[in-house]
Structures are given as structure tokens and as C-alpha cells.
Amino acid sequence: VSHAQLSAQKLNLSNVRFLNGDARDFDYGDGTIFFLFTPFSGNIFNTIMQKLFAIAQQKPITVCSYGKVTLRLMQQDWLSPFDSRDSDEYILGIFKSKPSIVKSASPEHHN
How far is 37 from 6, CA to CA, in rounded Å? Predict the structure, then answer.
């Protein structure tokens, strides 16, 4: 966390928070942009996707990724890639929540 905070200071970013802990225990409700760097898989990934999906039902969100998690995000029908290159796991992936799906879908279909 201290390295991330130092980097944010160097970039003159003031409205940024870095948290360290079990991702399943955090309240993501205040967030609008989320960055995932191949953080987890399996049940943990599914739990986080359900949490982010719930937030996306309330407001638009952006999910950014790098690494193998990008391929998993491509499978989430409630997310739309910002750019066609976002399907490459070694390019920064940027995904926006889809308002039409967000309002009509249920979380069970998004794991």
C-alpha cells in the first residue's frame, strides 16, 4: 500500500484510496472505477463479480484489468469492453457496465 500511495503522490492523484486485505470483506459501494490485476480466481472471483454487479445496478462503473483476469471479464455479459483490444490479457482492459443488462439481469447469470 505504501508503494501505491507514493506512486499516487508522484502522479499528483489526490482522490485515490488503496486498501490491503481480503477482497471479499470490502464494501465497494463508494467506488466507480475498479482495477483488477489477476487478483484471484474461482469462488473469490465470483464473489467479487457479484459485488461489482450489485454496484453496477445502482450506477455505472468501470472495471480495468491486466493479466488473465481480462479474459474472465470478457465473459461477464453485464460488462462491455471499451476497446476491441481489451480482449488481450497483456493490454490494459477497460470495461464499462451495460445499463440495459444491469437493470434486467440477475447476478446468477454473471459468474
Answer: 19
Cell of 79: 460488462
Opening angle at CA 90, ends 89 and 96, nearest 5: 55
pLDDT in tens, 9-38: 999 988 887 878 888 898 899 889 998 877
- How far apart CA 21 and CA 107 sit, in angstroms, is 24
For the whole prediction, is pTM greater than 0.90?
A: no
Environment class of residue 66 by beta-carbon count within 10 Å: exposed (0-12), middle (13-18) or buried (19+)?
A: middle
Sheet holding 93-97, edge to edge: 33-37, 62-66, 93-97, 79-81
